[in-house]
Amino acid sequence: MFFIDTHCHLDDILFKSISDQIYQKAQFLGVNIILVPSTNIYGFDDIKNLSHNNSGIFYSLGIHPLSVIPNTHSNLDILYKLVTNVINDKKFIGIGEIGLDFRNIYDDRNITLQKEFFVKQLSIAEEFSLPLIIHSVKSQDILLGFLKKRHNSGGIIHSFSGSYQQANSFIDLGFLLGFGGSITYKRNTRVRHNVSSLPLTSIVLETDSPYMLPSWLNKDGGFFNSPCEIASIASVLANLRNCSLAEIANVTTKNVVNLIPKLNYFICNSK
Ligand SMILES: [Zn+2]
Question: Where does a divalent metal cation 1 bind (predicted)?
Answer without folding.
Answer: 7, 9, 97, 208
